[in-house]
Design goal:
Length: 157
């Protein structure tokens, strides 16, 4: 039996190459799967961070509105009304005082008054009472998030 060595080796090389091609295709498929998974995970993190930034911005806006309502109460000569904010309160848009925390959308707004702030916290010139106003806005995302704004008010008139 006479075997043609040239054709025999070409057949062996072809068999090796066809097996190698399958392995190369599988490796490429696995790498492509990892790449796409990474892109999906990065996209999900970007969406989550965008939502957090949007919620934080809205919480800051709500806290600033509450502080402004406290200032309006003071400026309208109703600083004594703030005594109702013990221990917590919420000032409505019509300036009525709700003696509890309030939920606004996904946010829980809690305002509190410290009538005797410690030395150094509220060193403001003026006569009369000095109040330290704290507004906390919380919301639940992947964890509970909080935005806090504080200011000091005095009867400057």
């Amino acid at each position: 039996m006479n075997i043609d060595k040239e054709n025999y080796y070409e057949g062996q090389v072809f068999r090796l190459r066809s097996g190698q091609a399958i392995i190369e295709i599988l490796v490429a498929f696995v790498l492509l799967t990892f790449l796409l998974s990474g892109l999906v995970v990065a996209g999900l993190f970007a969406i989550r961070n965008t939502q957090y930034a949007r919620n934080r911005s809205e919480a800051n806006k709500i806290a600033s509105q509450q502080l402004e309502r406290f200032r309006v109460k003071r400026d309208s000569g109703k600083l004594a009304d703030l005594d109702e904010c013990d221990p917590v309160c919420f000032i409505e848009s019509d300036l009525s005082i709700l003696k509890a925390a309030k939920t606004v959308g996904i946010f829980t707004v809690t305002s509190s008054i410290d009538k005797t702030p410690s030395l150094g916290e509220c060193d403001l010139p003026g006569s009369g009472s000095v109040y330290k106003v704290s507004v906390n806005v919380t919301w639940v995302g992947s964890t509970t998030h909080q935005v806090s704004n504080n200011t000091c008010l005095t009867d400057w008139r």
